[in-house]
Amino acid sequence: MFFLVWMLICAVLGLFFWVALSLRSAPIVLSLMFFALIYCIRPAMIMLGANLVNPALFNDTAKLSAFALIYAVLYLSAALVTVVILSAVRPGLGAGLFPEMSSRVDTVSALVAILLTIVGMGIGVQLFLKFGSLQAILFAAKITKDLAGTFGLRSLVGLGAFFSSVALLISLRDRRIGKTAIFSLCFGINLFVFSLWGTRLEAFVLLSGTLLVLTSRAGQIDLWGIMKFSVWGFCLLFGATVLYIYRLAQLSGSWEVAFSRDLTTTTAVSMHMTRFDSLMLVVQDFTSGLHTRVGEDFYNGLIMVIPRALWPDKPSQLLIGQWFRQWYEPNAVNGWTVGGPGEYLVNFGLAGVILGGIVFGVMLTVIHSGYRKMGADQPLSVMLSVVLVLIVVPEGSPIQLLPRVVLWCIPIWLVVWAARMRLRAPVASVPKVPFPGR
Fold first, then answer.
1. Taking a C-beta distance cutoff of 8 angstroms, is the pair 160, 116 a contact?
2. Tens digit of pLDDT for each residue in 230-240?
3. In this structure, are residues 326 and 270 in contact, taking their beta carbons and an 8 Å threshold?
4. pTM of the full predicted structure?
């Protein structure tokens, strides 16, 4: 049964890829590649003998994998049908949500990149002065949570990496060797400081977006571009795994502990592919009607955006991943990401999975419309669309939509808007004052 369902999801993914290529949509293609990692490659790894995130928690692995894939197929199919219908009857849906680009956006992006890089360097220096070493900073971020409440600073560094990437791609496009070197350095600095919080997904997304532009024809995606991106993406995946092992060694103080897992499981964890493992646990323990969240996680996503300074008694556990892992491991500090189908399933059941797939399709259509409006050949447009599909609404999950819009989208929107502003009024708009005596 598992193999048949796995073949089915591969077929649906292939059809969806064909639609995305027909639309020449870089964001939809990249979203589907991320989806394939979780719900196509990861299940195959498990069936070939790779370890689960915690083998003791699972019962019949083959049965759980098959049913988890069925939910993923329903979710993906609903998204595919939605994209096809909306592309035919409502092309350009949601384009009005995206700002108009101007010719000055390249210059403004470069200035913002330099400014935020300076800020990021200052933040990095302060972290090292306070904690003393890379190991201590990572421990404070992932274990003791001493960096809780500093995610606004982390967002500034992430935005610095975003605009540095945009400026780097513009410099490469214009063949400016000096600027390419400067913004490559800025990009590297921001990614390093950003990684001090122990996060991998955002850095991987920004690197993926940069590679996507470099391996395609200025963001115009085609089959040859996907093949080149896949090769470089494999190298990126390998690099992410190495960095994850290094982080484990720093946190545990032992390389032996860091290499205690098998390589396939380490790779899956480092690339967030274990969202499929979480979906299997949801199928096993949360589809009988017991313990159903009944939309609680979606409500938490709405109140998450309220600053703790305005709400001192704000609950500390609002992330679904943290709740989900602590259900099985009460003393765990970090969480297990559930993924789009799993979030809808644990909150609303089967009907929620289908509804979630429709929402996913609507989101992909809106992001594609914005990508086309802002310019499919513009580095900022491509990078923004990548951030939207992989950070703001990964797998179509809207749970953390509001805080991520505040931290990512609004600042980028403001920079694009600022690039359209005129610093001085046109001469024709200045009223003429009559000369005295005339």
1. yes
2. 888 788 877 77
3. no
4. 0.88
